[in-house]
Please model this.
Amino acid sequence: MLEMITATYVQEDADWAITVSGRGKELTAREPGIIAARDRADQLVEELAGDVRTTVVHLLNGSALDFTSAYMTARLTLPKLPPLEVPPPGSVPKQQTPAAADKKPQLPPSKQLSKAVEDRKSPAAPAPAAESKAPAKQA
Model:
């Protein structure tokens, strides 16, 4: 036979009081938020029901709809984040400084050229001027 258990939630300041009743017993607990209260109610239901198959009705203000609305709002609400700080135009980000911008990033050893290859590299020389194939105009 299917037994029904009722989980009743009451908000007390920032905490939630939970009362789980069924099978002639009643268990209570207190948790800091509705999500934690719902998790704790599941634990209390397991204590009450044992191996018996049960249906649990969660109530807030005597209404399952009120509970579902409050619980889903808590689940789907994004945490409050500090406002994004936008640096003023023309400022240099903290991560980049002019001195750091001039340095080449260090390559991992697997990507570095051998010393022999580095020694053979010629110093940077200006590229030769491109030759024009068009005849020069005479004045």
